[in-house]
Amino acid sequence: MSAFTRVARGRLAAWLTVAAAIVVGATVFGLPRPDNPAPVSATGLSVQWQSTQVQRLQDQLPSSEVQPAIVVISRGDGGALSEADRAAVAARSGDLSRFAVGGQVSPTQVSPDGTVALVAVPLSTGGGQDEVTETVARLRAALADLPEGLTVEVTGAPAFTADLSSVFEGADVTLLAVTAAVVALLLLITYRSPFLWIVPLVVVAATEQLTLRAVDTIVPAVGINLQQGQVTGIASVLVFGAATDYALLLIARYREELRRDEDRYAAMRAALRRTAEPVLASGGTVVLGVLTLLLSEQETNRALAVACATGVVFAMLSALFVLPAVLVLLGRGLFWPFVPRVGGPVREGRLWGRLGSAVERRPAPVAVLATLLLAGLALGGLGIRTGLSETEQFRVEPEAVTGAQTLARAFPAGATQPVAVLTTPAAVRAVTEVASTVPGVASARPGDSGQAVAQVDVVLDAEPGTTASDRTIEALRDAVAAVPDSAPPAVDGAEAPSGAIVGGTVAASYDSEEANDQDLRLILPIILLLVGAVLVLLLRGLLAPVLLVLTVIASFFASLGAAWLLFDHVLGFPALDSGVLLLAFVFLVALGVDYNIFLVTRAREDAGSAGTRDGMLSALRVTGGVITSAGVLLAAVFAVLGVLPLITLTQIGIIVCMGVLLDTLLVRTVLVPALAFMLGDRFWWPSRIVRERPADTPVPPEPVTARD
User: Fold this and answer.
1) CB 586, CB 308: distance < 8 Å
2) Nearest-CA neighbor of 458 among 472, 469, 443, 439?
3) Nearest one of 164, 232, 162 to 394, comparing CA atoms
4) DSSP state, 169?
5) pLDDT per 10-residue tile (average), the chain, 708 residues
6) Phi and psi (nearest 5°) for 701?
7) What CATH number does residue 190 fall under?
8) Global pTM?
9) Minimal CA–CA distance to 351: which of 604, 627, 663, 601?
10) Residue 14 near residue 8, CB atoms below 8 Å
11) Structural domain ending residue among the three candidates 167, 200, 233
């Protein structure tokens, strides 16, 4: 590890390292920002999925860049609309024509019970998300002065686009501020020093900002569309958590070495030799873990893979180069009032030493009880429900959601977003008739038509994204595919369809859920194999890596069960988003094994002189405090995702938070040590622990004044 110890060879080397870091940072911030590639589809799915094929074929229709905003009018008291109300709505409909493509809006439709009226306003979507958001805002402003007693809400696809964009306004600043505040508080509590916490916080915050700037260049440069908000939010949290964890590990070992060596540069070199391997193994595990998301069908997940891998690489580099250089330049006084002196008392590890001794006395019962606790928590997930409808995605319901709910009370729930069936112009009548007979279809009528492609608009009875809606999509696809000579032209890169194909927003949501299931089946075993391989190389054995992977899997299911109990009975979430399982598993497996790496690598190091049992006791004593601090901090940082407005991000944050706490406080503290105590030297099978001569442990000399 000589490459890392160079930064602590002396004052000049440390200053050169800091200068090099500043130059690298300036270079990254000076990188050009390539144009963000257009998304492969609205859902990020490839052309192998019907919804993407439909979206591509719709470009051949005359109204390819037009989507209707649905203006929903109802009375505030829920009563029927009076004749005066209807007249006011009809009069206002004419004013809305200035927003409509072609200057025409649909005639006002009143629900059968007379309580709700709707007006469809076709809006242009060709100018991108910003233009759509601005147009929807002006449309809502124009409807603000309807007569008293009437409630007006704008929903439909353009309104959902606008509201999704608006709820993320300022979210990056909020996320950064809350995350930094949480990290600062926990570092202050951990170090109990008025100065020390500032150094890692500044280094970590700079690393996070550097990562986000690099991601702006790297992700588009590799041909992946970068969605700000979800991708950058998760990447930001991951960098803060990982970089702070590595900083905690390094500072703890540096403080330990300062009690052995008067020369702070020598102490830092010793600390780097001992911490570089676990930091690289930990960071490498996370990088390999998140890169498995490149195999995902979802473009957002692929962007997340590149962003998170970039961030973790920067986190490792900052912990092994920049932070050590800054620490040695500032000297021992940075630790005031608990300045580590040569031969000084060790205040850390007493609690963890006592806990380790208690586990050592009865390891088998402890292991059984810990396993039963994990299994009991996992049972909480037996009744888990997956799949959120479009109106259930937000923690705070925007107008597009409330408008869709109002509409669903009086019209078919799918009226806000009809399903698009693409066929040939000659087969439109046959496809319309067949679609009308499918159970769950409220209506089907011919829509836009081009030279080679025609569309049939189908309204479903069920709310988009529900189980009933999914069943109708399946039945509709089977029915229209069987219509003779109804297949539209094939999309480049996709197989020729056998018949008419079904797309639109509702079908795209169904395809996304299917893609998530496919990703789970592919990526889960791959990430487990990769993590296991890293552990095998690190520990040079087989049994310990297998046991560590099994404990991480157990903690994932336990955290999922515990989180579902919270979602279902406390927070009232209707279901788990279908994409959450994959992301939570990837982050928990990659991050959860980190703490086992920190513990077990130290245990193996100490086992060389003291044996496995005493080595594990020593490792638990010296790493217990820092690993617990790191775990609590990482859990708190992921919980900060709850400040963002989407239920999906809240769910990811809570599941990872609970999983990290279980890994930190139960698996690493109790279960893994108990297994090591039970197995002894067999824990490292098939490798062997070669006992070294007892390490020189000098008797603490008389207190001396250390020179900084």
Assistant:
1) no
2) 443
3) 164
4) T
5) 70 88 92 83 84 88 80 85 83 80 82 86 78 86 81 86 74 75 82 85 91 91 81 86 86 86 87 86 88 91 93 93 91 83 67 82 91 93 80 78 83 79 92 92 88 90 82 93 90 84 88 90 90 86 90 92 91 86 87 80 80 84 80 84 80 90 88 90 81 48 39
6) -75, 175
7) 1.20.1640.10
8) 0.82
9) 627
10) yes
11) 167
Identify the helix (H) or strand (E) that includes residue 194: none
Buried/exposed code over 606-620 (b: 16+ C-beta within 10 A; e: otherwise)? bbebbebbebbbbbb
Contact by Cβ (8 Å): 329, 708: no
**DSSP state letter for 61:** S
Q: What is the full DSSP assignment across 370-387? A: HHHHHHHHHGGGTT--B-
In 611-646, alpha helices (H): 612-639
Same structural domain, 688 and 590: yes
204 and 277 share a domain? Answer: yes
Give the end of a domain, one of 484, 503, 522: 503
Exposure class string for 195-209: b at 16+ Cβ within 10 A, else e = ebbbbbbebbbbbbb
Domain that holds residue 304: 1-30+170-342
Q: What angle do CA 391, 397, 398 make, to 5 degrees?
A: 100
What DSSP assignment string belongs to 501-559? EEESHHHHHHHHHHHHHHHHHHHHHHHHHHHHHHHHHHHT-SHHHHHHHHHHHHHHHHH
Query: Cα separation of 583 and 580, whole Å?
Result: 5
Within a domain: 407 = no
Kindly list the distances between the CA atom of residue 680 and the CA atoms of 41, 202, 554, 616, in Å, as whole numbers in the listed order. 55, 42, 22, 10
84-92 — which CB contacts under 8 Å span 24+ positions?
Answer: 84/147, 85/117, 85/147, 85/149, 85/150, 86/110, 86/117, 88/146, 88/147, 88/150, 89/117, 89/119, 89/146, 89/150, 92/143, 92/146
**CA-CA distance, 554 to 192, in Å (whole number)?**
34
Residues in the chain: 708
pLDDT, residue 695, reads: 46
Do 178 and 128 sit in the same domain of this protein?
no
CB hemisphere CA count around 31 (13 angstroms): 21
Asked whether residue 450 falls in the same domain as residue 537, the answer is no
Same domain flag for 459 and 589: no
The whole-angstrom distance between residue 298's C-alpha and the CA centroid of its chain comes to: 13
Q: Which tokens sit at 241? A: 């958590």
Residue 393 φ/ψ, nearest 5 degrees: -80, -25
Do 683 and 672 contact (CB within 8 A), yes or no? no
Select from 634, 705, 594, 677 the least CA-distant residue to 186: 634
Environment class of 238 (CB within 10 Å of its CB; exposed 0-12, middle 13-18, buried 19+): buried
Element (H, E) at 109: strand 109-110
